[in-house]
Write a structure and sequence with these properties.
Number of domains of chain B: 2
Number of strands of chain B: 10
Strand content of chain B: 25-35%
Distance between the termini of chain A: 46 Å
CATH topology of chain A: ABC transporter involved in vitamin B12 uptake, BtuC
Largest interface: A-B, 28 and 32 residues
Largest sheet of chain A: none
Shape of chain A: globular
Strand content of chain A: under 5%
Oligomer: heterodimer
CATH topology of the largest domain in chain B: Rossmann fold
Structural class of chain B: alpha/beta
Shape of chain B: globular
């Protein structure tokens, strides 16, 4: 356990906990709103933005966040309209984003390694600044969740009914998308653009199997998120596999276990 | 005479298909009106225009004399309790009956937070709808009839001035339908909330309803007393069976 004494590893543990909790909470929104395509699109848009940031020497985080916002601004109204098939438009925008990212990687020379980090994630190389950003975002997310718990619950339950009841459903929905985008962008460094989606969906999907209580679902999802990321990080010390890949595999394993023991599954049988 | 809902020359369409044609309708405060009509007559679209979730092509809708527009839409929606026709919900969604009923207060308390009084009103609404025993039950563990009662309790919890019930008895077994109609009847007699009840089944019209309108192909083809309307409808149904067309001319 000598590795625990290294500063970079201590930072990685804190980052795992913050990323896991943040992704676990915003993941509940993505999962219950049934908009996984928005999560996929945002994570790949963020990756494309980061690569362009490296090419044009603009802060990759800023550009990836702008790309995230752009994709949510695009996909939000599309998912609202019944006459457009969201999967279809998603596939097109998703391909364009991946095309931009991989085309951009061809222009990366000295920065290629950094570009690959945005693809696979590199939790061991995070700085103190990254930790501050992760902490601030988690704090904002928790504050919004506590202040608007009932309104968000209503929107997650049924957006149309929430709108009819006279709450500003669209404004809250877009703010939720904004926070999801921010979480994906900030977590890009630690988990990577290709793998983060699994961390957004895996923990809430597992928590959903175990409870009928939304508060418990948030709690379990955050705990699962933290557990999976630290599990991936620690296991990567002993195995020649990157933490990001182990996080994704851990997320899949957890989902398999929770589905097999789910009381909801037993009830529906 | 004051009107809870006042509609003038309302037109609405889906793409190029006109679904509401020059609708003129005034609904008195405290009255119980039933909207009858076959599927596709425009009943649900009419309800959706009143709620402001279906855009209109022309005409005006007034709620308690106030013209519905984007500035006051949220305020006016809070006065309307709505029970939807099709409730698409995830049966495994983590929410209890009590939490669903309580959503009726959220629009009224936006940015203020729910108070003890709101929880009391939710309890009252659940008692009144006869679902207090189901309070902590997850939504996926309810029958179709129980679910409808939950949504009626949700609408009641809002303490609405207008109640819009869009085919609340559809897809229920006959005994649940009867139970639900009796409940709506009792609630109307107790509270005298302006009630608009949409159905395409004549036996579902509650006793308290004194007035009916009949819609067909986007127009109101009859408006009048319930007995009179039902008599005309019977004749039309007989005519229809004998192969003749509906002969009611638009009002």
């Amino acid at each position: 356990m000598e590795f625990l004494q290294y500063k970079f590893f201590q930072r990685a543990i804190i980052a795992s906990l913050l990323t896991g909790a943040g992704c676990g909470i915003v993941g509940v929104w993505v999962f219950l709103l049934r908009i996984p395509f928005v999560g996929v699109l945002m994570s790949h848009s963020a990756f494309a933005g980061a690569i362009l940031g490296l090419i044009f020497h603009i802060n990759p985080l800023i550009l990836s966040f702008l790309f995230c916002l752009f994709s949510s601004a695009l996909i939000g109204p599309i998912s609202d309209r019944a006459d457009i098939e969201p999967d279809l438009s998603l596939s097109v925008i998703f391909s364009i984003m991946l095309g931009i990212a991989f085309a951009g990687m061809g222009f990366l020379k000295d920065e290629m390694e950094r570009g690959l980090r945005f693809l696979w994630g590199s939790i061991l190389t995070l700085s103190s600044k990254d930790l501050y950003l992760l902490s601030i975002l988690l704090l904002i997310t928790l504050t919004v969740l506590i202040l608007f718990y009932r309104e968000i619950q209503f929107i997650l339950f049924n957006r149309k009914l929430a709108e009819i009841s006279g709450i500003p459903e669209k404004a809250i929905f877009y703010f939720i998308l904004f926070l999801i985008g921010a979480e994906i962008t900030i977590s890009l460094n630690s988990v990577g653009g290709l793998l983060i989606f699994s961390l957004i969906i895996g923990p809430p999907a597992s928590a959903y199997q175990l409870t009928y209580d939304l508060k418990k679902m948030y709690f379990l999802s955050a705990i699962f998120g933290m557990g999976i990321t630290t599990f991936g990080l620690f296991l990567s010390v002993f195995l020649p596999i990157s933490p990001g890949a182990l996080i994704v595999l851990g997320s899949g394993l957890l989902l398999g276990i929770t589905i097999s023991i789910s009381p909801k599954r037993r009830f529906s049988q | 005479m004051s009107f809870a809902i006042s509609i003038e020359n309302l037109r609405a369409s889906y793409k190029n298909k006109i679904v509401l044609k020059e609708i003129i309708l005034n609904i008195e405060e405290g009255s119980f009106l039933t909207i009858l009509g076959p599927n596709g007559a425009g009943k649900t679209t009419l309800i959706h225009t009143i709620l402001g979730i279906k855009r209109i092509d022309s005409g005006t809708i007034k709620i308690f004399g106030e013209k519905l527009n984007w500035r006051n839409i949220r305020k006016l929606r809070r006065k309307i309790g709505y029970v939807p026709q099709n409730i698409f919900i995830d049966p495994k969604f983590p929410i209890s009956v009590y939490e669903i009923v309580l959503t009726g207060r959220i629009g009224l308390r936006f940015l203020k937070g729910l108070k003890k009084e709101d929880r009391k009103i939710a309890e009252w609404a659940m008692k009144r709808a006869g679902i207090i025993d189901l309070k902590d039950r997850p939504i996926g563990h309810l029958s179709g009839g129980e679910l409808r009662k939950v949504f009626i309790a949700r609408a009641l919890c809002q303490k609405p001035e207008i109640l819009l019930l869009d085919e609340p008895t559809s897809h229920l077994d006959p005994s649940s339908q009867k139970e639900l109609i009796n409940l709506l009847e009792e609630l109307y007699l107790e509270n005298k909330i302006t009630t608009v009840f949409v159905t395409h089944q004549i036996p579902h019209i509650p006793e308290s309803c004194k007035e009916v309108i009949f819609m067909k192909e986007g127009s109101i083809v009859f408006r009048g007393k319930k007995e009179e309307g039902l008599e005309i409808l019977k004749t039309q149904i007989i005519k229809n069976f004998s192969g003749k067309n509906y002969g009611i001319s638009p009002v």
